[in-house]
Amino acid sequence: MKLLLVLIPAVLLAQSTGLVVGVVEDRSGAVVPGVRNVFQSTISVSPFAFADQARNYSPIVTSLRVQPNWRYRLEWRNDYDPLRGKLVNSSVNTDMRVSDLLGLSFGHNAVRAPTALSPPSNQFSAGVRIGDFNRRGWNGAVSTIYDYRQSIFIYNTSQVTYNTDCCGFSVEWSGLAVGRNPNGNLFRISLSIANVGSFGTLRPQERLF
To answer: Is the pTM of this model over 0.90?
Structure first.
């Protein structure tokens, strides 16, 4: 069983940048109060923005990873901001390999930072995978993200793959319901030939397995 706990305490941004502190704001105006400010040093601490005012310490970033065996994995990451006295960001993800053919994944992401930094969110994700990309025969996978605040599925993806001894093909559909394109649909395909390679619009980083 693997257990990893990483705790990044509140750091003095004055020591890491010499910019994101009140005294430097008075000198050069590095921090603009009331809006989102992003610096190289803040990104290195947390992917979530937290500098909307002069401050000399960051949120406390905690990352917990538990992997009892190769079939199960759990990761929880959160940012506790002492300045605001609460968890401002939280992300939980788990992966389960039920069998050699079946895999499941679940997740939850919440953002409770001030709206000047990021819009609040409360999203759930789930995925099901049957087979894998190179397995002979039919294989499939589905992934979705549900936004609880908006009561809609903002992202859906499904992939179907069929392989024979010599070749295989894959088809993937993605649906996006955010921003100015609430009904965006995208289709990708690929053809794989043994000992030759893959061709098409479905790239490896875009596959579900």
So the answer is: no
